[in-house]
Write a structure and sequence with these properties.
154 residues, 23% strand, alpha+beta, Alpha-Beta Plaits, 5 helices
Amino acid sequence: MADQLAAILMVLVVVQAVVLAATVYFLRKVRRVLRVWKTLVEKERGKPSKPRKRYVVFTLACNGNPSREVIEKHVENAFTTYYGKAVLAKASPQLIFMDEAVRKGVYRVSHLYVKHLISLFTIPLETEECKCLIIPLKTTGTLKKALKIIGRGR
């Protein structure tokens, strides 16, 4: 009888330990969900966040010398063709700087659409005067760093 009580007591201790471990595990999961929920609710009530911009530094591999307008038009047409006008408006890609002598430039785009812009760089630019490929070098968060990569910054 004493052996049976000891075995039952041992089983109860093991079950209690398993239940405690499961409770701690699920409590962590619940805390994580509540933390995410809290940040989402606070974002809705708080002020709207300013959309972040990214600067994509690129270089041109060309057999000619395309102008700034040709590159801008090419990227705008590619955005409209592949993603539509709505995404073009949200991404708002802008050619900030273009050095035609060294064939390098900087595009500014919304942080959510950086990969969209880089994927469009794979489309070759073909005009009557030249054929080009836009090669992305680096993505930065500030224009100062982007210009430093090109060699124009201090």
